[in-house]
């Protein structure tokens, strides 16, 4: 069989993983965890003692970092959980378009034009008003698992 007869399917992506494994017993409050395929900030952790089936269990209560919804999960403490790679980036606000998209500038001088104003009306109004007043606004954008939520854009003058 010659090399020309081999076919390979390319299904892997070139990017880094969206999550990494971490033992459930080592995840603490204020950390991050994936619950029901959603990145969550851990707000409560409780661990049960080892029962007759041999595993201590960790009960996690998390808040979805994008929607604010409360999610819960119970995992054996010796098992691995997925932990999302969460990043926060600061951008200077350059412009707000009529359709609600913001134009942002990072420290390297590159622009980011694919984000909308936050869905939180109070925060969106604060950003619009500050921009209309001519203030220099720095917006913090949180991203995890390929999501860039508009509701997590925060401003600081």
From TrEMBL:
Which Pfam families does this UniProt record tie to the protein? Answer: eIF-5a, IF5A-like_N
- The answer to whether keyword Protein biosynthesis applies is yes
**TM region(s), chain numbering:** none
Q: Which InterPro entries match?
A: IF5A-like (IPR001884), IF5A-like_N (IPR048670), IF5A_C (IPR020189), NA-bd_OB-fold (IPR012340), Rib_uL2_dom2 (IPR014722), Trans_elong_IF5A_hypusine_site (IPR019769), Translation_prot_SH3-like_sf (IPR008991)
Q: What does the record give as the organism's lineage?
A: Eukaryota, Viridiplantae, Streptophyta, Embryophyta, Tracheophyta
> What is the protein name stated in its UniProt record?
Eukaryotic translation initiation factor 5A
Mark out the compositionally biased spans (Basic and acidic residues). Answer: 1-13
Protein's GO biological process? positive regulation of translational elongation; positive regulation of translational termination
User: What NCBIfam families does the record tag this protein with?
Assistant: eIF_5A
- Which residue ranges does the record annotate as region Disordered? 1-21
Q: Can you summarize the PTM annotation of this record?
A: eIF-5A seems to be the only eukaryotic protein to have a hypusine residue which is a post-translational modification of a lysine by the addition of a butylamino group.
Q: Which PANTHER family match?
A: TRANSLATION INITIATION FACTOR 5A FAMILY MEMBER
Cross-referenced PROSITE patterns, in alphabetical order? IF5A_HYPUSINE
Q: Which UniProt keywords apply?
A: Hypusine, Initiation factor, Protein biosynthesis
- Superkingdom as given in the UniProt entry: Eukaryota
Q: What does this protein do?
A: Translation factor that promotes translation elongation and termination, particularly upon ribosome stalling at specific amino acid sequence contexts. Binds between the exit (E) and peptidyl (P) site of the ribosome and promotes rescue of stalled ribosome: specifically required for efficient translation of polyproline-containing peptides as well as other motifs that stall the ribosome. Acts as ribosome quality control (RQC) cofactor by joining the RQC complex to facilitate peptidyl transfer during CAT tailing step.
- Which residues belong to any copy of the Translation initiation factor 5A C-terminal domain? 85-154
The text of the family note is: Belongs to the eIF-5A family.
A GO term for molecular function: RNA binding
Q: What Gene3D superfamilies is this protein classified in?
A: 2.30.30.30, Nucleic acid-binding proteins (2.40.50.140)
